[in-house]
Amino acid sequence: MSEQININKNLSDEEIYKQILPQVDSLLKESEPLISSLSNLTSLLKDAFTKISWVGFYLSKNNKLYLGPFQGKIACTVIDFGKGVCGTSALNKKTIIVKNVHEFPGHIACDSGSYSEIVIPLIKDDNVVAVLDLDSYNFSAFNETDKYYLEKISDILINKFSFENLI
Ligand code: SME
After folding, report:
1. ∠ CA 136-77-104 to the nearest 5 degrees?
2. 130 in any annotated domain
3. pLDDT of amino acid 2
4. pLDDT tens sequence for the chain (167 residues)
5. What is the DSSP letter of 151?
6. Of 18, 63, 157, 158, which one's alpha carbon is 20 to 30 angstroms from that of 127?
7. Rounded distance, CA 109 to CA 87, Å?
8. Any idea what the CATH number is for the domain that residue 46 is in?
9. Strands 78-80 and 64-71
10. In a domain, 51, yes or no
């Protein structure tokens, strides 16, 4: 089925999030495979915000994160819990905002042009089932507004899908 998303990009980040939130809800269809929803969501976010250089999901299995649907340059495929920004977020079950990735100990540089990053863990029944990772070529591109709305989007995903046997 064809999908159409309407985004007015001449707005503040907060207003863009407010615009896309109801559209995210209708884009994520419980009746279809989760992988399709995750793929479309990465496209929606990349399209909505010019500040995003890379956006994607890493899917969790046995304390490792495996590359899932994404938009952007090719990326590392496996990250151990505790390693890099994604693995640290998964281990600590907390969203991490990094203003300058070059100053983050153990940062995994998939794209040397990346400057800042936000990682949101998706937690179901106290287990991290995935992380949502966004990178930017801009310094300090992500803030508490991104955290608030990306956590809301993650909550919609967690509430709609089981994430079981995804990988
Ligand atoms: N920078 C991440 C690795 C994933 S790439 O950015 C796509 C990290 O340190 O976790």
Report:
1. 45
2. yes
3. 57
4. 557 788 888 899 999 999 999 999 889 999 999 999 999 999 999 999 999 999 999 999 999 999 999 999 999 999 999 999 999 999 999 999 999 999 999 999 889 899 999 999 999 999 999 999 999 999 999 999 999 999 999 999 999 999 988 88
5. H
6. 18
7. 13
8. 3.30.450.40
9. antiparallel
10. yes
Please name every residue paired with 97 in a beta bridge, in sequence order, or none if there are none: 118
Q: Is residue 141 part of a domain?
A: yes
Ligand 1 center to residue 108 CA distance, Å?
5
Protein residue whose Cα sits closest to atom 2 of ligand 1? 108
C-alpha 110 to ligand 1 mean position (Å): 6
Instruction: Retrieve residue 32's tokens.
Output: 């279809």
Q: What is the dihedral of CA 54, 107, 124, 49, to 10 degrees?
A: -20
> How far is Cα 133 from Cα 131, in angstroms, rounded to an integer?
6
Task: Give residue 165's pLDDT.
Answer: 83
How many structural domains is the chain composed of?
A: 1
**C-beta separation of 166 from 122 below 8 A:** no
Q: Where would I find the beta strands (DSSP E) of the chain?
A: 54-61, 64-71, 78-80, 96-98, 116-124, 127-136
Q: Count other C-beta atoms under 10 Å from residue 122's C-beta.
A: 23
Tell me how far the alpha carbon of residue 94 lies from the centroid of ligand 1, in angstroms. 15
